[in-house]
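your task:
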Amino acid sequence: MEHLLSIVIATIFILLALLHLFWVFWGKWGISATIPTDLNGRRVFNPGRPGTLLVAIGLIFFALTNLCAIGVLKGPFDNNYAGYGMYMISGIFFVRFIGDLKYVGVFKKYRNTVFASRDTHIYTPLSLFLSISNGILAVMF
């Protein structure tokens, strides 16, 4: 069961990394609903290509960590250490789930924007799933 969960999680991370790479190199599709805005529609921040690329690389690293944990890949370190990485991933996504208490996360203050709606229905629940599932897998490995 844990192998299937790790593969599902790795697949999610790879798909998210590919989306970020698409934004870095080619397009703008979907990006308007992925950046928090204030009530006037102004972006709270403007991620550049280097930052977006860094996120994509991080997501790939997270996918590889999950695959190393189940032995599908052999990393540059002992696979037993992948569990520590999964604790880290769990923590990162738990912080994302909580958010900044203003524009992002479960306790966000502003809820009447396109991003806020997507955050409530997609991004925050996905962050909670990734946090809990990586935490559970970290305990198992």
Summary: The chain has a mean pLDDT of 91. The two ends are 13 Å apart (CA to CA). Residues 2-28+47-140 form one domain.
